[in-house]
Amino acid sequence: MLLLPTLEMDLAPYKPLISHEIEALEGDSTVALYRYWQEKRAGDEAPDWADFKFIDLYRIAPVMFVMDVVDPDDVNKLRYRHMGTRIVEYRSLRLNPDLTGKTFGEGDRSYDTAPMAAAYWTAYKEAVPVVMRGDYRTENAFGRHERLILPWMIDGKVARLTGCLDRFPPDPK
């Protein structure tokens, strides 16, 4: 029997601030993605996925993710269509660092996922931008982060989420 190495650790507490305060975005990637979303939105509730072009966002693609809404009643079934290479690097010590093709529920994490699940679900159900800000701690890094989650429509309903992650040094205390 082959035993795979695992990292034993309790899930770190994770209590980010979850809001709709877009005007306070401070990350270069989150600002770039939000401006793109606004441009494509053109006054609609959320932009149409047909207007999304990865080439327009190639500079921030390493810290982006794209998720498909597979089951409108289960956040754990959101499926990662794309997970940027830098996010995969951030997850390098996880059993499955690249979640592309996997569901949110299949992702192993070093922290409590409830706040992230709530943020994704709010962006999907309410068709609104959601921002998560706070401290993070993983096996190999810690600091502050800003995560932006944005809804995209297909046939008049939210069918995809895009997002990105900016990380910052810890606040000096």
Report on the architecture of this protein.
The structure is a single chain. The protein is an alpha+beta fold and 173 residues long. Strand 5 and strand 6 (157-168) form a beta hairpin. The chain starts with 16 loop residues before the first strand and ends in a 5-residue tail after the last strand. The protein is globular. It has one domain: Beta-Lactamase (2-Layer Sandwich), CATH 3.30.450. The chain contains three helices and six strands; from the N terminus they run βαββααβββ. It has helices at residues 28-41, 85-90, 114-126; strands at residues 17-19, 64-68, 79-83, 130-137, 142-154, 157-168. The model is unreliable at 1-9 (pLDDT under 50). Strands 1-4-5-6-2-3 form a six-stranded antiparallel sheet, sandwiched between helices.
Distance between the termini: 48 Å
Strand order of the largest sheet: 1-4-5-6-2-3
User: Describe the biggest sheet?
Assistant: 6 strands, antiparallel
Residue-averaged pLDDT: 89
CATH class: Alpha Beta
Order of helices and strands: EHEEHHEEE
Name the shape in a single word.
Answer: globular
Which residues sit in consecutive blocks of at least 5 with pLDDT less than 50?
1-9
Give the proportion of residues in helices: 10-25%
| CATH fold group | Beta-Lactamase
Bin the strand percentage: 25-35%
Class of secondary structure makeup? alpha+beta
CATH superfamily label? PAS domain
Q: From the coordinates shown, what is the CATH architecture? A: 2-Layer Sandwich
| Number of E-state strands | 6
Tally of structural domains: 1
Q: If you compute it from the alpha carbons, what radius of gyration comes out, rounded to the nearest whole angstrom?
A: 16 Å
The tally of helices reads 3
